UniProtKB/TrEMBL annotation:
The keyword Signal applies. Keywords: Signal. Residues 1-26 form the signal peptide. One of its GO terms (molecular function) is glycosyltransferase activity. This is Glycosyltransferase 2-like domain-containing protein. PANTHER family: GLYCOSYLTRANSFERASE (PTHR22916), UDP-GLCNAC:BETAGAL BETA-1,3-N-ACETYLGLUCOSAMINYLTRANSFERASE-LIKE PROTEIN 1 (PTHR22916:SF3). The keyword ATP-binding does not apply.
Length: 443
């Protein structure tokens, strides 16, 4: 139940707080962007072009510019290595470890790709002209000049696709095998990745700096002074450059193989509205079910051959999230716990906000996750455990319950329908986890 403010002075404080917040949002740039195209020359683009057409055209333009740049540089490199200059400055300028045949092969592929992109852009542009989505006289240059107001960061060279986010606190014995496993499996998978680590005990900074060096920058350490998980993940999520964030904890070792990351990428690509995938524990429904763990799924995605199903709640960790969705819903709630205090309820709170914002949440079975049993994590030690699982659980739980209350039941209904409509039964011998496992009429 929401209590009414007791005195006028406290409601005055709340009112002025709200006003100051609305002042901030009212002046934020994203709220002022009703004018899409500043120049009248470009304004046609806001009339008839859909956002998906804009995205396609932008990517074509961006890729074409990168190829033009590459071909330009390769032309100069080939010329100056075939005709070696005498001026030491020019020699240094065009020095390369690649051989002339390698440069020429690269040149050939890049020019072929450039021609392909040229043809593709011309085809798209003339089709959009014919259907009046672009002006009758629109050219590639017109589209380039007007649509390069924004760029697609995923197309930047060498940008990681996956960012592992690790919250680390005093567990030096796990570091080597943890980092080796992740770096190895990502190399095998051939997907650009990084491991951003919040080092929550700064005194180990030297060791992490050395790891950044020895892994050629795969490890990106961030030094914090015991901020604990909510603030740690928000800080490193902001720093991460991948589109997919995989939140990890230092007491759970990732599998040796790369299959789990491959499966995550497949799920996020097949389900465009998927916001998060948990891999540790889940609930079909927060108020009516209890926690379920590995090897307990009733549904799966038969087409992909992946053991995953929609769930109302998923726990840390690992927990994979789409970066844009994590940001859109406000990340983890730092108001749920003070600095240095455990983030209990933070995971359920995050995924519940995703459901309420129209995103989906899944749980996926991962083989080979290993709990590090060499020492129990900070929040599981007897002297600190009650502080988290008892005291913090009560206060954060109070907030969580009044924030969402009975709306969980609506989410559960929606999750059930998604499972029945989009997935297949994995284990018909198991009892149906719902009152009924048949679709309701008209759903
Ligand atoms: C050329 O295109 C192929 C196929 O799309 C791609 O795999 C390759 O990376 C591209 N190479 C360059 C240099 O653009
Ligand atoms: C937008 O497209 C429609 C057809 O889909 C066309 O009739 C209309 O003239 C176009 N608008 C402009 C400003 O060209
Ligand atoms: C297209 O033609 C219109 C006049 O019909 C002119 O105002 C506009 O600048 C032209 N646009 C381009 C891209 O040439």
């Amino acid at each position: 139940m929401i209590e009414r403010p007791k005195s006028t002075s406290s409601s005055y404080i709340i009112l002025s707080l709200l006003l100051s917040i609305s002042c901030i949002t009212a002046t934020s740039p994203s709220q002022l962007r009703s004018v899409q195209y500043f120049l009248p020359y470009c304004s046609y683009l806001s009339v008839n072009l859909s956002s998906s057409n804009i995205a396609t055209l932008r990517s074509l333009v961006q890729i074409r510019h990168y190829l033009q740049k590459r071909v330009r540089d390769l032309t100069d490199l080939i010329y100056n290595n075939e005709h070696p200059p005498t001026d030491p400055v020019v020699i240094h300028t065009f020095k390369t470890k690649r051989t002339i045949p390698e440069l020429k092969a690269d040149f050939d592929i890049s020019t072929q790709n450039l021609t392909k992109i040229d043809d593709e852009s011309e085809a798209v542009i003339s089709q959009l002209r014919a259907t009046h989505h672009l002006p009758h006289n629109a050219t590639f240059s017109y589209v380039s000049h007007c649509l390069s107001s924004r760029l697609e960061p995923a197309l930047y060279h060498g940008r990681p696709k996956v960012s592992f986010l690790l919250q680390y606190f005093k567990r030096p014995q796990m570091i080597d095998s943890f980092v080796t496993k992740l770096a190895g499996s990502m190399k095998k998978l051939g997907v650009a990745a990084e491991l951003v680590v919040n080092v929550d005990n700064v005194e180990e900074s030297q060791q992490w700096a050395e790891l950044s060096y020895s892994t050629n920058g795969f490890v990106v350490p961030v030094l914090s002074n015991n901020v604990h998980e909510a603030r740690a993940y928000n800080r490193i999520a902001g720093l991460a450059r991948g589109q997919l964030l995989i939140l990890l904890q230092d007491d759970m070792h990732p599998p040796e193989d790369d299959v789990w990351v491959q499966h995550l990428l497949q799920l996020f690509s097949k389900y465009p509205e998927l916001g998060a995938v948990g891999m540790m524990a889940y609930r079909y429904c927060i108020p009516t079910h209890s926690n379920s763990y590995h090897n307990s799924l009733y549904f799966h995605d038969k087409e992909l051959g992946i053991k995953a199903q929609f769930v109302a709640a998923a726990d840390f960790a690992p927990l994979a999230v789409r970066k844009t969705v994590f940001e859109e819903v406000g990340g983890l709630d730092e108001g749920l716990s003070e600095e240095g205090v455990c983030g209990i309820f933070g995971d359920w709170d995050l995924v519940t906000r995703m459901w309420l914002s129209g995103w989906q949440v899944m749980y996926m079975d991962v083989d080979g996750l290993q709990v590090d049993s060499t020492s129990s994590g900070g929040t599981h030690k007897p002297e600190t455990g009650d502080r988290c699982w008892l005291r913090q659980a009560k206060s954060a739980g109070t907030l969580f319950n009044s924030r969402f209350g009975s709306i969980h039941l609506d989410i559960c209904e929606h999750v059930q329908q998604l499972n029945l409509k989009l997935l297949q039964v994995l284990n018909p011998a198991a009892p149906c986890p719902y009152t009924s496992c048949t679709l309701t009429a008209g759903a």
